[in-house]
Amino acid sequence: MKFLTSITAAVLAMGVLLAGATNATANERYGKQKVVxxxxxxGGEADKKYRGALRNIQNHINAVGAENMEVKVILHGxxxxxxxxxxxxxxxxxxxxxxxxxxxKFNVCNNTIKGRKIDYEKDLLEVFPEDIIPSxxxxxxxxxxxxxxxxxx
Length: 153
Prior knowledge:
Layout: H1 2-30, E1 33-39, H2 48-64, E2 69-75, H3 81-85, H4 90-101, E3 105-109, H5 110-115, H6 120-123, E4 132-133, H7 136-145, E5 149-151
Parallel strand pairs: 1-2, 1-5, 2-3, 3-4
């Protein structure tokens, strides 16, 4: 019986060491990252597309570590539907709030706000003046020039 207890303890210890090694390996493998996610499409079928995109961002953070990332989400055109739908869709809202708590920045295109006559304070989830950028497309270009990796989920 002592033999089995020793084996169990050894296996558990190895699991802890491997978990730590895997995390360290991920940090070494991926390093620090600056990433911009581009969303300009409608959510569709109960916002599955939006929720999928937000899951991609969360998975990215899980792999690299929030402390190793600078993440921005640029929303323009139909992409503003993500924050509009998040006002009434609890699953979507939970994902947005969770990502914001991990320092993900959601930026909203002012051209879209004006062109579609959107009241960002009433119509969109947690958008503040500092979240509004002049142009979504111009911001994507600027961020890529600053070394951000472009991802369109």
